[in-house]
Amino acid sequence: VFGLGRGCFSSEVVVRKEFAASIPQNLSFVEAASIPLVFCTVVGGMQEVAVRNEEILVHAAAGGVGVAATQLAKKRYG
User: Fold this and answer.
1) DSSP 8-state assignment for residue 61
2) How far is it, in rounded angstroms, from Cα 25 to Cα 28?
C-alpha cells in the first residue's frame, strides 16, 4: 500500500485506512511513494487559488508537483 501520514519519510508508519491505497500493479514502490505528497500539495494549492473559468499557469511542469498540477488542471478545468 501507499499513503500519506505523519512520519511519511520513515520506513514504517501507522495511518488511517482512508489515507492508504493499494499500489497499482504498473507502479513500483518508489513511483507509488511519490504520488501522495505531490498531489496533496497541488490539491491544497488549487483549492486556495484556482477559480473556475480562469487560466492556470504551471511553472516547472517537468517536476513532480508540476506534472501533478498539469494533470489535475486538465482533469478539473479542461
Assistant:
1) T
2) 8
User: What is the distance between the alpha carbons of residues 61 and 42, in angstroms, rounded to a whole number?
Assistant: 12
DSSP per position, 37-60: HHHHHHHHHHHHH--TTS----SS
Length of the chain: 78
Whole-angstrom distance, CA of residue 34 vs CA of residue 14:
18
Interatomic CA distance for residues 2 and 27, integer angstroms: 11
pLDDT beyond 80 at 16: yes
The Cα diameter of the chain in Å comes to 42
- Residue 78's alpha-carbon distances to 52, 65, 75, in angstroms, are 10, 18, 6
User: C-alpha grid cell for residue 3?
Assistant: 499513503
Quote the percentage of the chain above a pLDDT of 90: 18
Q: Say whether 77 sits in a helix, a strand or coil.
A: helix
